[in-house]
Amino acid sequence: MSGHDSKYFSTTKKGEIPELKEELNSQYKDKRKDAVKKVIAAMTVGKDVSSLFTDVVNCMQTENLELKKLVYLYLINYAKSQPDLAILAVNTFVKDSQDPNPLIRALAVRTMGCIRVDKITEYLCDPLQRCLKDDDPYVRKTAAICVAKLYDINAELVEDRGFLDSLKDLISDNNPMVVANAVAALAEIQENSSGPIFEITTPTLTKLLTALNECTEWGQVFILDALSRYKASDAREAENIVERVTPRLQHANCAVVLSAVKMILQQMELITSTDVVRNLCKKMAPPLVTLLSAEPEIQYVALRNINLIVQRRPTILAHEIKVFFCKYNDPIYVKMEKLEIMIKLASDRNIDQVLLEFKEYATEVDVDFVRKAVRAIGRCAIKLERAAERCISVLLELIKIKVNYVVQEAIIVIKDIFRRYPNTYESIIATLCESLDTLDEPEAKASMIWIIGEYAERIDNADELLESFLESFPEEPPQVQLQLLTATVKLFLKKPTEGPQQMIQVVLNNATVETDNPDLRDRAYIYWRLLSTDPEAAKDVVLAEKPVISDDSNQLDSTLLDELLANIATLSSVYHKPPDAFVTRAKTATQKTEDDDYPDGNETRYSETLSNAANGGASPPSSSSVPHAAARQPAPAPAAPAPAAVPDLLSDLIGLDNNQIVPADQPATSSGPPLPILLPAGSGQGLQISAQLVRQDGQIFYSLQFENNTQITLDGFMIQFNKNSFGLAAAGPLQVPPLAPGASARTLLPMVLFQNMSTGPPNTLLQVAVKNSQQPVWYFNDKILLHVFFTEDGRMERTSFLETWRSLPDSNEVLKEFPGIVVTSAEATLDQLAASNMFFIAKRKHANQDVFYFSAKIPRGTPFLIELTTIIGNPGVKCAIKTPNPEMAPLFFEAIETLLKA
Amino acid sequence: MPVAASAIYFLNLRGDVLINRLYRDDVGGNMVDAFRMHIMQTKELGTCPVRQIGGCSFFYMRISNVYIVIVVSSNANVACAFKFVVEAVALFKSYFGGAFDEDAIRNNFVLIYELLDDKPVPNATLQVTGAVGWRREGLVYKKNEVFLDIVESVNLLMSSKGSVLRCDVTGKILMKCFLSGMPDLKLGLNDKIGLEKESQLKSRPPKSGKTIELDDVTFHQCVNLTRFNSEKTVSFVPPDGEFELMKYRITEGVNLPFRVLPTIKELGRTRMEVNVKVKSVFGAKMFALGVVIKIPVPKQTAKTSFQVTSGRAKYQASIDCLVWKIRKFPGQTEPTLSAEVELISTMAEKKSWTRPPIQMEFQVPMFTASGLRVRFLKVWEKSGYNTVEWVRYITKAGSYEIRC
Fold this sequence. Notes:
heterodimer, A: 902 residues, Immunoglobulin-like, five-stranded antiparallel beta sheet, 37 helices, flat, B: 404 residues, alpha+beta, 3 domains, nine-stranded mixed beta sheet, 16% helix, cell membrane (chain B)
């Protein structure tokens, strides 16, 4: 049976949407069905077909199950963006949930659970309640899962309506599939809730173990996963449970097997009888091995888990090392994991075989794999004392192949072997020294230098060897420099002759004077002082006996291991990290944003923003934007409390850079609209300054107006800007003529960007200092309005707009409402925004609201994608923006507010 | 969907969406872009099938020219997710008639959406309401038939010196049932545990004949595992139609169907002499089909000349191998290939050639490398009809590698 659905993907020449609309309203059933398929096809490839919402929903009332399913699929996708229209579908949902066909009943409930629109959720409760008690197990099963979804949307509602109790009742259901799904739902709810919701009691345990035998494979996984959290009261109970679970090890489904293993391992902790434990270990081995004949991805999951299991119970697979030998065509991720387990299972008994394998791998093609194989040989040497010699001889054989990266890797591990077995294998140093020239990786170089320094007294030409490295000392990476420093000191202490003495001076000089690496410098100074005050003490320190190392790489801490073992088969066991290290899901994370009804707190937050802005914008922008961002995104940006620049700086600045202050002795124009007064005459001893940033002909200017209300003539005006978020600075001298008493002058000061940037999150504060020859320096604050930076090239093509919008993660979307702003005429607003280089992209109707899309760009290529939602003529504008640089959002909102108010 | 997944995507190799199904809206709609940017367009592709990007984890599998990507934001069961994908793909294949690729998906997207809604059991919608989850009641067949296929793959890794490094057989029993009513089936094999149990029960010595020891057995969900554990019998109510009844693994006493004896001599820098002898060690009346032996040669191979005593051989530059094909390979014979390979001399190549293993493909009908035999298959149904049973055996090469 093969379909021919691909025809639905082919588009007709023009006007696809109207054509679809027509077909959706056709009187012929087949045509309607085809049209819905086309809509779904378009939706799949990412086209926006939300405008067909009403037409698609109209097709919902049909007896045809296939068509119904498609319409429901559409609803799930678009209900969120059309919440008001989605309500239209509610009636059909409610009706379908009472349909005589159980499949339709289940479908209706399942779909409603997938739609996260508050209004729909309200209507969902009654049908859900009915379906939880439905006669048909398939409907009950579906309803159980739906409760978990509803809990995610509205936990309170679930608790209020008693759905949790209904779920718990379903655990005693006579259909095992219903039981399994109820358990899955409860487990999921528990995961998202802090309180105890689902605790497994002994009667529950018995019920679930019975259901285990009868339900499908996925149901078995649910039950086993839930039961693995059960703590048996004593060894006997644990043994009983394990006995019921062990048959699952024979299941064909790898997920069932892994979950059964998890459960057994958990209970084994309680079992005291060594016979039982040994027997269980024996039983678990074959199924674990069998997992390695599954698909490579499943093998990978199994191997990551086996890695954990052998750390806790090495006996299980002690005799199975052969199955972890790499196949030539294994994917690299499988090979790497197999190597890790081979190291863990290597023992005196099998080491010869293992070494042969490692040697084989060391000649393969993949560089990373080869390196890991070489390192594995070293780790085995460190782990197995009796095999160390054989390991070293294999390493020496590999060095003889003279493949560069093999040699380097071998030297790194041999250094560790020297540490582990001091005074045993130094005879091979001569061989190592032969490859000295080929070393080019820092770690290998550092290892070799360590070896030379450590065994300086046995290497006749140690000084020559070290000297050859010293030539390039300044260029070496820090790791190598540190090692060179220590090795030279060791050499000097061991052979205090003339040559080393000279060397040490060179090194100490290089490491103290000619470096800016604090680690290196500090170490060098310590050596220097030690050597100059008490060389004997230096010997005791530098040549002290080193503690013997052991191979503990990749060994997990015991408590972490416990936690990971309790999470076998899950992501946690694959990452080898506890779940809370990577699950960032916050329950209330995503909802609300698309809904119109904001919590009341929003208003106050908004006015706070305003007052912040009124305070000269000196407060960090995060105060207003972060609550928004945090409410929307599970992973909020850290609320950076970065302090704004301190005004004190200004005095320094003026004092230091006085010569940079530009003389103002040229005439200036005086026309244009009034500028905001920044320095009132009252605080400026009669000098009043008004100023504003403006954009003209693609350039940014600081438009300034000076009014002299003093009794004397003021001249010699100069201006200076403090560091600011955009690095705004004067591009030329301030040109203001001498001002007679009562006179005023206006000037345009060209500005440049990115001159003196301040650090920290961007803010709108612009601190300005102005002086003249007669008065002290005046400081005042101005606010940078982002829209002056909007460049003329900010226009985007529709397609690239859509692409950019999609490519930016949701965390980069920031939303703000302006309840007080009214857009009276769309055209006028568009013109006005266009004048500020905010370019109109598209417009669409959404219910009674108009949604406009714009793009804008600020220098250095930061684009803003803007969505404005409003009802023309009514107060309230919602603005959502997406930008690669969401820190800019508050600044942007201030700018747009100014623009819209103007 | 048995996993708490947030979304599942089917993408083609360019990253275009073929299917997307959102289950929860806690992940953004731009997850595909994240996958494309951070996995598909980087070297990371293929280095690990489970990745974390931001707050979400991605599990992905490539099947022919399609990526199936599951996105989760919780600590989901990964084993379950991958198994789900594997099962779903198998199901799609059975619906699409074999192929699972971009075209098949485009041609059947409506069906896929429908199947993704439900757990992946064929005809799930028809069966879920019954008491036995996998079988519908009231089936009637005019002729009641059961087909058993025992399919084994032999995995071998042999050292260049001819010693077996690793060898195992993974087998599966595929069953096709066309049976009326609710039949109870019982399968008997010549494995040790089963036979011992039987002889205990009937208190008589086991019948003569070879018994084999299974390392591990796994069963389809229809098999009563508790009963297998206690009584060691494989009893089940089968699903209708085709399914995989059981899988097993054997490492002891494997009959290798072929022995490969390679000698490869490098004569100076530019010449190589390759001699390979392949010996079939199964019965003389049987024969293998589709035998392919791939003998790797260095990249800088310039010219090859062959002599084969059976089949055909050629040099395939795209995989750097001499490929020797023998369509029909009788038992107890030993054809040989001798080839001369001329190489382009390269001075730069300091590293000696790392010899990949010789690989072999084959199928041997009516032969089991494990020695497994079906001893009986009993069918009980309350109406007491007669059943016809058909049994076939075949052994294929898994990864059959000989280092040289």
